[in-house]
Amino acid sequence: MNKSSAAFIATALTIATACNEVKQEGQDFEPVIGKQEISIKDGRLTPEALWAMGRIGSLSVSPDGSKIAYTVAYYSVPQNRSHRVLYVMDADGSNNTLLTQTAWNEGEPQWIKGGKKIAFLCNESGGSQIWEMNPDGTERRILSDFDGDIEGFSFSPDEQKVLFISQVKYGQRTVDLYPDLPKASGIIVTDLMYKHWDEWVESVPHPFVADFDGNRVGAAKDIMEGEPYEAPMKPFGGIEQLAWSTDSKQVAYTSRKKTGLAYSISTDSDIYLYNIESGKTENLCKDYTACFHVEGMADSKKPDTNMGYDTNPKFSPDGKYIAWQSMERDGYESDRNRLCVFNLETKEKGYVSEAFESGVDDYCWSNDSQNLYFVGVWHGTSMVYSTNLSGEVKKLTDGMYDYGSVALLGDKLITKRHSISAADEIYALNPADGQLAQLSHENDHIFNQLKLGKVEERWTKTTDGKQMLSWVIYPTDFDPAKKYPTLLFCEGGPQSPVSQFWSYRWNFQIMAANDYIIIAPNRRGLPGFGMEWLEQISGDYGGQCMKDYLSAIDDIAKEPYVDRDRLGCVGASFGGFSVYWLAGHHDKRFKAFIAHDGIFNMEQQYLETEEMWFANWDMGGAYWEKNNATAQRTFANSPHRFVDKWDTPILCIHGEKDYRILASQGMSAFNAAVLRGVPAELLLYPDENHWVLKPQNGVLWQRTFFSWLDKWLK
Questions:
Q1: Can you say whether the dihedral through the CA atoms of 503, 509, 511, 517 is positive or negative?
Q2: What does the alpha-carbon distance between residue 65 and residue 86 come to, in Å, rounded to a whole number?
Q3: Of all helices (H) and strands (E), which one includes residue 460?
Q4: pTM, 2 dp
Q5: Are 256 and 229 in contact (CB under 8 A)?
Q6: Which residue stretches of 496-543 are H helix?
Q7: Is residue 562 within 8 Å of residue 601, measured between CB atoms?
Q8: Could you give the CA distance from residue 289 to residue 281 in angstroms, rounded to a whole number?
Q9: Which residues pair with 375 in a beta bridge?
Q10: What is the rounded distance in angstroms from the CA atom of residue 507 to the CA atom of residue 701?
Q11: Where are the alpha helices (DSSP H) in 516-573?
Q12: Where in the sequence numbering do the catalytic residues fall?
């Protein structure tokens, strides 16, 4: 449920829905989906306007730093599908040109052949393969003919080889065991992790290496052949979890080499280094434990075995170092992501982001290999920082924004930026003086028509005497002389920041356009306020974090423009749990609730979910551990135990392909409310997972959301 790695996760999954659209023989595509033109009535944001926006995805800078290739996904509500295209622009944002105007989906651009060609993924051949074209979009041709879909790729620095990701079979199917029953639909399960996120696990991604002669990609070698492990790791890992050495002789990759029960209870992934010539693999996290001194790092000489997540390796330009993101503790998926640097010659490593008391979400090396740039959240905003090899951290950006990525653009940085009031656009940042230039203007034609609600920060004193930051979003055309219905937004994760995020579903500006005030608190358990604040939620779901929510709504309710008799409470994932819990503890504060994909019954959740490390860490253990005080406190605070106190209308939303929190949770909550005589409604999606990814389902979500709120709060 955590999205910490993922500032990009929701966008990545949404765009991914386009990758599997393949033209069948004799089948015609519907009209090509391109940039959407839409007229906004009264300047107010609507669901249709949200789905008309182009969504910027991956980007790539040419070798000389003069051009940028990037992807945009467009959506059609009538066709209920998406289409991904490629653009190229000059490094100053000029000459922005659409390269692809076919019905095929194209993505993952990478400059090759000295910038003379752009390599990309395309499904024109019936599956996802590597293609190339000129920077003006001409002379398109296929480079690979792999027997399987290619999900991500990277050419070696000398361009004599290509590294790519493809799925390999995992385990045995029923038909393998009983060939005479080819139509049997039963799935025989013998270990855990038989389902993950939104799929039955029948394949795992592996890294492949193939020769490239400049014209065709040759036969490919699975560098983990025979290993039943993932690289990159599901469900969100991509090509960023693999990297070429600067001499093109080695590949670094991320893998958690565990299966079944062992996989389900551990987050211990490592960085492996594969030698192309010898075929040998070494574990950089476990085979070497010596640490070099980093200024400000406590116990810097203490051996370190990296027992948590280690992901996303990147070699320094001079080839002397490799860096990666590292979590310290096994089983804790929301541990702080530290930036680890490994000296390939001395086999020593150190952590260079210790002075930043929050996680590193993305990073890149400087050209001189002496500094790294990274993005991370602090006090409700995600900014760009730099650190040198001595661990001296400097903040490079400011303002009420979130920067979601960082990469080199010549002597500058290229980054994507969004906020509560703006979708992603591409920017160039000069790290020397902090000067920022907007390069893309994908959705100007829509935002120029919008009147957006004011966003401001608000600090509230909590019940234990701490100061808590909330974002307050005011209605379009806000009039302080009027009284407005007000919504408490409950964040998911449970340890995901309430930063300046832009969402195509949980969008604060569309709530403001419907004349609601929103308060979104950074309650206990969220990053960006130090480790003590972050970790107070673990094993205490019904504790201080819930008091923080009530402190936030009680504080804003003191304002004369807030109608205390029209308060609502909404949230998804852990936010959905929060809604279910508050429904039994709100002392009649709220007049309406909405819970999406939330946990209703904690005992049920413990045995239904798939990533058991999450349940063990956050719940403190199993409910049958009677001597485990933390676990017993957790399950005693399960929302289903307080249904006898439910007295307020509630809308429950859930997707049946959500294998993290099964749809039975939402159905149970709805059934309980109906049996209690509480007004209730259930919106169930048979074809959606933990999110809502299909356009028409997304519009239905918004219409149902506001119909419910308007019914009880207006």
A1: positive
A2: 18
A3: strand 455-461
A4: 0.94
A5: yes
A6: 508-513, 531-535
A7: no
A8: 17
A9: 362, 384
A10: 12
A11: 531-535, 544-556
A12: 573, 658, 690
Give the contacts of 567 (CB within 8 A, at least 6 positions apart): 485, 486, 487, 488, 553, 557, 589, 590, 591, 713
263-281 burial: b if 16+ Cβ within 10 Å, else e: bbbbbbbbbbbbebeeeeb
DSSP conformational letter for 248 = S
H/E element holding 361? none
| Bridge partners, residue 121, by sequence | 107, 130
Tokens of 335: 């541990």
What is the rounded CA–CA span in Å between residue 221 and residue 96? 38
Distance (Å) of CA 564 to CA 221, 484, 508, 588, 591: 65, 9, 20, 11, 10
Question: What is the DSSP-derived secondary structure letter of residue 23?
Answer: P
Reported as a single tens digit per residue, the pLDDT across 56-110 is: 999 999 999 999 999 999 999 999 999 999 999 999 999 999 998 888 999 999 9
Looking at residue 230, the DSSP 8-state letter turns out to be: B
- Written as one letter, the residue type at 110 is Q
- H helix intervals, 249-334: 260-264
Q: Which residues of 548-584 are buried (b: 16+ CB within 10 A; e: fewer)?
A: bbbbbbebbbeeebbbeebbbbbbbbbbbbbbbbbbb
Q: How far apart are alpha carbons 199 and 167 in whole angstroms? A: 14
Q: What is the CB neighbour count within 10 angstroms for residue 221?
A: 14
- The token duo for 40 is 């906004």
Question: pLDDT (tens digit, 9 = 90+) per residue, 186-242?
Answer: 999 999 999 999 999 999 999 999 999 999 999 999 999 999 999 999 999 999 999
Pair of tokens at residue 207:
């890294």
